[in-house]
Structure to design on (397 residues):
């Protein structure tokens, strides 16, 4: 049974939250303060309500001490929530972010984490020397990741009854300057495809597939041979290959449900896949028992899943060998999308092939390319009928 003790102009409500492993009773308390101008009768009624609610929280195990320090609560969040609800990459990324976060505000009770505390922390992250690799401040994108991590913890603190407000929602999300898309134009793509003619079957297959399908790196490396229908020319994207230092390379689900999709591949892609499969079969025979059984399309020399860094390293070597401009691996995905848009493919189809969860995502990323394609369409109409129309107008009285 909860007890109530008056302490000046506040009331302390105390209740049992069960027993610990030694049999000792766990007691928790909360403080309630009446609103100004409440009558004694109103105070007594609300006090009784608060007592019942608090006792119910304690009995159901949903009570969290609002004075708990951020680090202690975040560690509880990692164990009781994040481990089972977040993707492994996100979980381990947040673990990395927690180190700096704890150093800055881990000692503060949840109730003491204010918008100003957060803003001071983000400003500190942007200072010179914070990035050990460059010597400068952390990037805008990384600072936003810190904000997302802290906000996720605070949202759960609200759901678990520790606090009633998330201070992260009372400040603007750290700004991330939108970078101009880097992609190959048609001339560069043709030069790159010509350069691939001098590469082995695996290299040709990797980059022809990326350019013609727009797959993400993780989706490409997650492909297994049963995902390729050589008769219909359809590639099914149903899994991804991921890597985190803590567990190495592993198989995961796609980024979103919408990312699971079937893509019609051109004959060029299917032919490249056929040649690569034949070459992989020969390699498997050559190394015999050393081949580690795997059904992955792209593997290490012994059959294990290919490292996520390998396609990027291969790309840079090919570009350098052929005197071509250096671009990122993800630029090939942007190149694919830009080609589709410039060819007049409707945005819903483009979005579906890319595996975006919403068409608005595609519209946002490729806004400039869509505008350029729209302007080109307008010019095409002008060229097709504009001149004849103008000449006809001159003949009118």
């Amino acid at each position: 049974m909860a007890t109530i003790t008056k302490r000046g102009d506040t009331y302390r409500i105390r209740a049992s939250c069960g027993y610990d492993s030694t049999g000792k009773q766990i007691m928790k308390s909360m403080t309630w303060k009446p609103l100004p101008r409440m009558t004694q009768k109103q105070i007594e009624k609300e006090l009784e309500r608060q007592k019942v609610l608090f006792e119910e929280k304690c009995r159901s195990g949903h009570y969290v001490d609002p004075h708990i320090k951020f680090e202690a609560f975040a560690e509880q969040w990692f164990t009781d929530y994040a481990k089972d609800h977040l993707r492994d990459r996100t979980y381990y990324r947040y673990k990395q972010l927690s180190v700096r976060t704890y150093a800055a505000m881990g000692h503060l009770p949840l109730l003491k984490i204010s918008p100003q505390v957060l803003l001071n922390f983000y400003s500190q992250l942007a200072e010179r020397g914070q990035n050990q690799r460059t010597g400068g401040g952390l990037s805008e994108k990384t600072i936003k990741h810190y904000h997302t991590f802290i906000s996720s913890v605070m949202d759960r603190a609200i759901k678990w009854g520790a606090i009633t407000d998330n201070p992260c929602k009372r400040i603007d999300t750290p700004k991330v300057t939108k970078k101009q898309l880097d992609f190959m134009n048609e001339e560069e793509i043709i030069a790159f495809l010509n350069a691939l003619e001098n590469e082995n079957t695996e290299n040709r297959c990797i980059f022809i597939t990326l350019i013609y399908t727009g797959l993400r790196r993780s989706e490409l490396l997650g492909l297994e041979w049963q995902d390729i229908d050589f008769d219909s020319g359809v590639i099914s994207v149903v899994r991804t290959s991921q890597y985190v230092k803590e567990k190495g390379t592993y198989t995961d689900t796609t980024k979103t449900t919408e990312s699971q999709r079937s893509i019609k591949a051109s004959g060029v892609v299917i032919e490249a896949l056929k040649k690569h499969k034949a070459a992989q079969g020969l390699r498997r025979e050559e190394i015999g028992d050393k081949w580690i059984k795997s059904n992955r399309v792209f593997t290490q020399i012994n059959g294990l899943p290919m490292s996520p860094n390998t396609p990027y390293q291969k790309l840079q070597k090919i570009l350098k060998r052929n005197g071509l401009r250096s671009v990122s691996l993800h630029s090939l995905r942007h190149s694919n999308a830009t080609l589709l848009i410039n060819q007049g493919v409707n945005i819903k189809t483009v979005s579906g092939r890319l595996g975006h969860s919403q068409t608005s995502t595609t519209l946002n990323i490729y806004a400039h390319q869509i505008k350029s394609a729209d302007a080109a369409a307008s010019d095409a109409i002008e060229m097709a009928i504009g001149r004849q129309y103008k000449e006809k107008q001159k003949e009118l009285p």
The CA atoms of residues 24 and 380 lie 82 Å apart. The chain has a mean pLDDT of 89. DSSP finds 14 helices and eight strands in the chain.
